[in-house]
Specification:
Length: 515
């Protein structure tokens, strides 16, 4: 079987197509599961009819996923979208599985992640509970890491990238708090500054709001849709790239469209990396195979601290990458069978430099203190990222279509919960605008920082915040159900991810014979 210009066995080709289908299915489910975040307020304030609202949100989710708004804002120096969220998710995965994602264990990892995430998302959607797709996927990733570590004879804690998990979990934890307090405060500010009674009244029948209020509500709905598409779509993109790199590395291990100037710049910078780390190695020497093993252990979650041997390994890998990149003007001319090996070198070097930049020495000071060295390392890391951390346009289009189409179906269950069952009174125009504006702002900021936050948490808590600020009352039974779903998401998905990973290993090894 030939796919993407590479000859594959039937089993590998089958798993590739199935994995891609599951990744797109995850984004499709993500679309209709999270639709309520954008459309509940415009529907329940009679700003847009349901069909129009859902199609509108779906289109803007698609635009956000494609990164059009990011390209536009880039002209003004504002960067959103890109691939930071996509590869932030990948950074949570066990290093050995990322480096060998085309192995049987890699296949098992991908299917465990996607199937467990889809199961929980569909289950909470069926019950009308606005749970977090981000929480779902991250819990599944943790489950795979835990199972992988325990099956290798290590402590379960060794299977989780605690630094990355802490950063993401703080974003997921803080975003609903920010949504609740921010939306409530914004409503109170509106009441103090804008004295329009119609803004704070519930809609009468099917009467649409005044034009100026309608424009504001449509704008906030659009912003939530755009930033949801930009942030959430990247999660699927990151997993798809992991699948493609593992199974067809010749076509996707390296960014075939990388700017030759960036490649040549990276080659020069690698020699600067050698200059920085050689003195730190303090005369230590290391072989190529030992360097890969040393860095593989060093970049793991809770891996060992940097030693002279680690610095020697980074210097050796940097020299190896510099030698490989120096003659390259186009990756298409680079030997097909060496691309995955070069990607492994770049990945370990990139992650190793990143960890050193964050690390502290025995005296508690930064490992690299010289400003020129720090600048050179950061520039080198950025260029390495552009060579391996990329997303082809066709992947963006597929994921964007899946997310956008998903947004247009199955929306009603959660919309009813968000629009009718959080507060005791009907949603007012001001409440809808405040909640949506705060959700859009929080998600946009997270996208800028490369953090995968929960759109669901921000919007749902924002509506609850406006109800509390307006003293409209909250429906405790609904809030308890939503909070229970939020609390259970991580442990349930960790369990599902771990169980399905173990089952996947058995199937790939014993049924399909993939090692």
């Amino acid at each position: 079987m030939e796919l993407f210009g590479e000859s594959l066995t039937f089993a590998a080709g089958f798993f590739l197509l199935l994995a891609l289908a599951l990744a797109l299915a995850f984004e499709f489910v993500n679309g209709f599961h999270d639709t309520a975040n954008a459309v509940a307020t415009v529907i329940y304030t009679n700003t847009l009819k349901p069909v129009v609202a859902v199609v509108w949100a779906g289109c803007w989710n698609l635009i956000g996923a494609l990164g059009f708004v990011g390209w536009l804002l880039g002209f003004f120096g504002v960067i959103v979208g890109g691939s930071a969220v996509a590869y932030g998710i990948v950074a949570l995965l066990p290093v050995e599985l990322v480096l060998h994602s085309g192995s049987g264990a890699g296949f098992a990892m991908i299917f465990a992640l996607l199937v467990s995430a889809i199961l929980w998302n569909v289950g909470t959607w069926y019950l009308g509970l606005p749970a977090s797709s981000s929480h779902t996927l991250i819990g599944s990733i943790m489950g795979v890491g835990v199972a992988n570590a325990m099956m290798a004879g290590h402590s379960w804690t060794a299977g989780i990238n605690w630094d990355q998990a802490y950063k993401i979990m703080m974003a997921l934890l803080c975003s609903p708090i920010v949504g609740f307090l921010g939306a409530g405060l914004l409503l109170l500010i509106l009441k103090a500054l804008v004295h329009r009674e119609d803004l704070y009244k519930a809609p009468e029948g099917k009467t649409p709001p005044p034009l100026w209020i309608r424009c504001i509500l449509v704008l906030t709905c659009t912003l939530v849709s755009v930033f949801h598409g930009s942030n959430d779509a990247q999660k699927g993109m990151g997993l798809i790239m992991l699948i493609l790199i593992g199974i067809v590395p010749g076509a996707f291990a390296l960014n075939m469209g990388a700017d030759p100037k960036v490649v040549q710049s990276a080659a020069i910078e690698m020699r600067q990396v050698v200059t920085v780390f050689t003195p730190l190695a303090n005369g230590a020497t290391i072989t190529k195979d030992d360097a890969i093993a040393e860095l593989s252990a060093f970049v793991k979650p809770n891996g060992p601290k940097a030693t002279e041997k680690t610095f020697a390994a980074i210097a050796l890998e940097a020299q190896s990458v510099a030698d490989a990149l120096a003659p390259i003007t186009d990756f298409a001319t680079f030997p097909h069978d060496q691309r995955n090996g070069l990607r492994t070198d770049i990945y370990l070097l990139d992650e190793g430099i990143g960890k050193v930049l964050k690390g502290k020495g025995k005296d508690g000071n930064a490992l690299i203190a010289d400003k020129d060295s720090l600048s050179a390392l950061k520039k080198a890391k950025g260029d390495l990222d552009s060579i391996t951390k990329y997303i082809p346009l066709w992947v963006k289009v597929m994921v964007a279509l899946a997310l956008g189409c998903g947004t247009m179906v199955g929306w009603k269950r959660i919309v009813v919960t968000v629009g009718e069952k959080i507060g005791k009174s009907h949603l007012t125009y001001a409440q809808g605008a405040s909640a949506e504006f705060m959700a859009a702002s929080t998600i946009g900021l997270a996208d800028f920082m490369g953090l995968p936050v929960s759109t669901t948490h921000v919007l749902s808590s924002g509506i609850a915040g406006t109800m509390a600020a307006n003293r409209s009352g909250l429906q405790k039974d609904t809030l308890i159900s939503i909070l229970l779903a939020w609390v259970l998401t991580l442990p349930v998905c960790i369990f599902l991810g771990a169980t399905l990973f173990a089952a996947g290993l058995f199937v790939t090894f014993h049924v399909f014979g993939i090692q």
